[in-house]
């Protein structure tokens, strides 16, 4: 199929984009890489009357670390994150580059943007899961200025976020490092949307487990945290065999806590079995993530990755 007719506008600055959104109202959609919106338009699942193209706004690209955490400009591509070799990013947030390989195929990662994925609000999107796991802050800009939206208040439901029609997502910020984190998922074919995804971030003190966070995708209309399972990540253990038991118990608790629906990809029981497997797997991977970074940390900083003075 082909998209329904629409009017195309190309923004020349953030201020220009905000002016166009205010002028065009709720009938306008923002487009950058187009990897989420264009397929929906092709199948006429989305029919915006106007497209506002922000793909040329270079000021919204790049990664940098400062005292407020890791900042990722909204137009930074998945591939820029995937190939980032900034030591500060890799030491504090290694899960982000490591998770990019789960996103579609290389052409999609080269064009698709971090902000576009988050603003789209797909419960199966890796960036939506990662922002939920790591308590990200979403920075939006509108006619009334900038506002910071905690991720807990951002995803409201099925493809629905807290962004207002005249607002633009300009930055994703991760306030706290997460050196012991991992994301894993299951899809029928590589590059397909995940049926279920799981991400785990552990709080380790001198190698001892003191707490953590667990987030799931594909089990609700938006990514979810699982406090019932997180409560079990406080064992204080360091022995690998004991950690395996903790992760198995947390995986069982996560599977019991969710209430996924049935669809053509599998029953609710099947999704719970995937939750059980993936949470345990992500927990094991997260427990060794920092050591892997220390053993193989590149020294160069690529174009597009910068540290703010």
In which range does the helix fraction lie?
Answer: 25-40%
CATH topology of the largest domain: Uridine Diphospho-n-acetylenolpyruvylglucosamine Reductase, domain 3
Number of helical elements? 12
Distance between the termini: 49 Å
Q: What can be said about the biggest beta sheet?
A: 5 strands, antiparallel
Structural class: alpha+beta
The number of domains is 3
Unreliable residue runs:
297-309
Classify the beta-strand content into a percent band: 15-25%
Q: What gross morphology would you assign? A: globular
Instruction: Tell me what the CATH architecture of the largest domain is.
Output: 2-Layer Sandwich
CATH class of the largest domain: Alpha Beta
**Strand element count:** 14
Taken in chain order, the helices and strands follow as EHEHEEEHHHHHHEEEEEEEEEHHHH
Mean pLDDT: 90
């Amino acid at each position: 199929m082909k998209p329904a007719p629409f009017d195309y506008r190309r923004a020349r600055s953030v201020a220009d984009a905000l002016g166009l959104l205010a002028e065009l109202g709720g009938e306008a959609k923002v487009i950058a890489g187009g990897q989420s919106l264009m397929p929906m338009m092709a199948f006429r699942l989305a029919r915006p009357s106007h497209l506002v193209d922000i793909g040329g706004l270079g000021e919204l690209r790049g990664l940098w670390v400062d005292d407020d955490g890791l900042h990722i400009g909204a137009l930074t591509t998945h591939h820029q994150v995937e190939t980032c070799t900034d030591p500060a990013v890799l030491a504090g947030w290694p899960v982000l580059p490591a998770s990019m390989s789960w996103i579609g195929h290389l052409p999609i990662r080269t064009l698709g943007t971090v902000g576009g994925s988050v603003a789209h609000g797909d419960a199966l999107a890796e960036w939506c899961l990662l922002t939920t796991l790591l308590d990200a802050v979403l920075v939006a800009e509108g006619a009334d200025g900038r506002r910071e939206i905690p991720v807990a208040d951002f995803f409201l439901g099925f493809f629905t976020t807290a962004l207002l029609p005249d607002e633009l997502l300009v930055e994703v910020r991760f306030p706290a490092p997460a050196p012991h984190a991992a994301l894993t998922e299951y899809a029928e074919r590589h590059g397909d949307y995940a049926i279920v995804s799981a991400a785990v971030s552990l709080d380790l003190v001198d190698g001892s487990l003191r707490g953590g966070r667990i987030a799931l995708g594909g089990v609700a209309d938006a990514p979810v945290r699982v406090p019932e399972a997180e409560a079990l990540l406080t064992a204080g253990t360091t022995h690998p065999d004991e950690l395996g038991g903790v992760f198995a118990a947390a995986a069982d608790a996560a599977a019991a806590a969710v209430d996924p629906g049935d669809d053509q990809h599998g029953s609710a029981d099947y999704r719970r079995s995937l939750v059980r497997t993936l949470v345990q797997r992500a927990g094991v991977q997260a427990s060794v993530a920092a050591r892997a970074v220390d053993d193989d940390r590149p020294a160069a900083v690529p174009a597009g990755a910068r540290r703010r003075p």
